[in-house]
From TrEMBL:
<dbReference type="InterPro" id="IPR036237">
    <property type="entry name" value="Xyl_isomerase-like_sf"/>
</dbReference>
<feature type="binding site">
    <location>
        <position position="232"/>
    </location>
    <ligand>
        <name>Mg(2+) 1</name>
    </ligand>
</feature>
<keyword id="KW-0119">Carbohydrate metabolism</keyword>
<feature type="binding site">
    <location>
        <position position="339"/>
    </location>
    <ligand>
        <name>Mg(2+) 1</name>
    </ligand>
</feature>
<comment type="subunit">
    <text>Homotetramer.</text>
</comment>
<feature type="binding site">
    <location>
        <position position="268"/>
    </location>
    <ligand>
        <name>Mg(2+) 1</name>
    </ligand>
</feature>
<dbReference type="InterPro" id="IPR001998">
    <property type="entry name" value="Xylose_isomerase"/>
</dbReference>
<feature type="active site">
    <location>
        <position position="104"/>
    </location>
</feature>
<dbReference type="GO" id="GO:0042732">
    <property type="term" value="P:D-xylose metabolic process"/>
</dbReference>
<keyword id="KW-0859">Xylose metabolism</keyword>
<feature type="binding site">
    <location>
        <position position="296"/>
    </location>
    <ligand>
        <name>Mg(2+) 1</name>
    </ligand>
</feature>
<keyword id="KW-0460">Magnesium</keyword>
<feature type="binding site">
    <location>
        <position position="309"/>
    </location>
    <ligand>
        <name>Mg(2+) 2</name>
    </ligand>
</feature>
<keyword id="KW-0963">Cytoplasm</keyword>
<feature type="active site">
    <location>
        <position position="101"/>
    </location>
</feature>
<dbReference type="GO" id="GO:0009045">
    <property type="term" value="F:xylose isomerase activity"/>
</dbReference>
<dbReference type="GO" id="GO:0000287">
    <property type="term" value="F:magnesium ion binding"/>
</dbReference>
Length: 435
């Protein structure tokens, strides 16, 4: 039974690059074979429950602009209506996956027992929709940043009762994710950081955060959850000093607390920008360590210093991201989640669908460009040439030598190297041939 929210919007079909229909896919053809695998299986698109259905259109300077039939989001009847609408849009888009925070799908009850009750009720309802032919759950997570109880952090909070409430909340969300057959479980430490060292015991907070994550891993194995545990880096916002600043920071944290073989990263393009990085940098950092799990595909406004979470529209950026993903073997349990929201002036149901159509198309274009570059081999050939000096026996032996022996070799052979061009502009021009 239709809710009527998407009246007049048909299922989105692939019509090809020459189509001018704004409500059609021009590049995303789920059945197209790319490097031996269906495009849908490469991209593994997921719709984010929070920005698509829970966000009300506010920003730091203004309140709600969206007036949805499920607003206010304060009782179970409206939570179920929101779920009905969500599954209608999943069907319209042909999206194979979705994601949620607990606070997105159930109303806040003000107590853990109340939240647990509504979470169980709504996930049973969602499970029925999945069994009726709806998409799968890519990942679930707990919102431990919006409620005022978390203003000083969750696992890093100075109050042990907040730590306990957060631990119980994560357990409930892991149970719900497991029940729904989720392929991953994500932890985003939105408040895991500090604003001033004047009131912060940094060492203790990091130790508590490390212990919390170890508890999560232990519980994963206890319940037999086969999915991946992922952490999501984010810098600065909302905390001034975020403990999970970027991919490299998170990798160092995971290694410190013995979690590098148990936990991977969920990387977001918008967070990369806030950290002063490119998305390809974050992905390459994670893949170099074998720790890429999943991606949140969005973008930030380069002229704003906060997390604008816009849908992607830059093919070269997206292509280079998927280039590194494909080189590393592709996404396994992870996927491409649209952690993105329409602009607060885009108040119609058509805007919400069209935003996802455009994002899926841009990712498809980027994926095809990335695959073409890999199949052409130009970048790999350039890398091989640039580092070819390290293929000689003498160079390899030097890495097992010592400073004294190396110095003697420099003297004996009269080594006095001349700089070699990095050919950056040539490589940038090469990439532009494909995008």
């Amino acid at each position: 039974m239709s809710t009527g929210f998407f009246n007049g919007i048909d299922k989105i079909k692939y019509e090809g690059a020459n189509s001018t229909n704004p409500m059609a896919f021009h590049h995303y053809n789920p059945d197209e074979i790319i490097m031996g695998k269906r495009m849908e299986e490469h991209l593994r698109f997921a719709v984010a429950w929070w920005h698509s259905f829970a966000w009300e259109g506010g920003d730091p300077f203004g309140g709600q602009t969206f007036e949805r039939p499920w607003h206010p989001q304060d009782d179970m009847a409206r939570a179920k209506l929101k779920a009905d609408v969500a599954f209608e849009m999943f069907d319209i888009l042909g999206a194979p996956y979705f994601c949620w925070h607990d606070a997105d799908i159930r109303p806040e009850q003000g107590s853990f027992a109340g939240n647990l009750s509504t979470l169980n009720e709504i996930t049973d309802y969602i499970g029925e929709k999945m069994e009726a032919g709806g998409p799968d759950l890519l990942w679930g997570t707990a919102n431990m940043f919006s409620h005022r109880r978390y203003m000083g952090g969750a696992s890093t909070n100075p109050d042990p009762d907040v730590f306990a409430f957060a631990a119980a909340t994560v357990k409930s969300c892991m149970d719900a994710t497991h029940k729904l057959g989720g392929q991953n479980y994500v932890l985003w430490g939105g408040r895991e950081g500090y604003e001033t060292l004047l009131n912060t015991d940094l060492e203790s907070e990091l130790d508590h955060m490390g212990r919390f994550l170890n508890m999560v891993v232990d519980y994963k194995h206890k319940i037999g959850f086969k999915g991946a545990i992922l952490v999501e880096p984010k810098p600065q916002e909302p905390s001034k000093h975020q403990y999970d600043y970027d991919a490299a920071t998170c990798i160092g944290f995971l290694r410190k607390y013995g979690l590098e073989k148990e936990v991977k990263l969920n990387l977001e393009q918008g967070h990369a920008i806030l950290a002063g990085h490119s998305f390809e940098h974050e992905i390459a950092t994670a893949t170099a360590e074998g720790m890429l799990g999943s991606i949140d595909m969005n973008r930030n406004d380069y002229q704003s210093g906060w997390d604008t979470d816009q849908f992607p529209n830059n093919t070269p950026e997206v292509a280079l991201a998927y280039y590194h993903i494909l080189k590393s073997g592709g996404l396994t349990t992870g996927g491409t989640n649209f952690d993105a929201k329409v602009r607060r002036q885009s108040i119609e149901a058509t805007d919400l669908v069209a935003a996802h159509v455009g994002g899926m198309d841009i990712c498809a274009r980027g994926l095809k460009a990335a695959a073409a570059m890999i199949e052409d081999g130009g970048l790999e050939e350039a890398l091989g040439t640039r580092y070819s000096g390290w293929d000689t026996d003498a160079s390899k032996a030097m890495l097992g030598s010592d400073l004294g022996a190396i110095t003697q070799r420099v003297l004996d052979e009269g080594i006095n190297p001349e700089p070699r061009s990095g050919r950056q502009e040539i490589l940038e021009n090469y990439v532009n041939r494909f995008v």
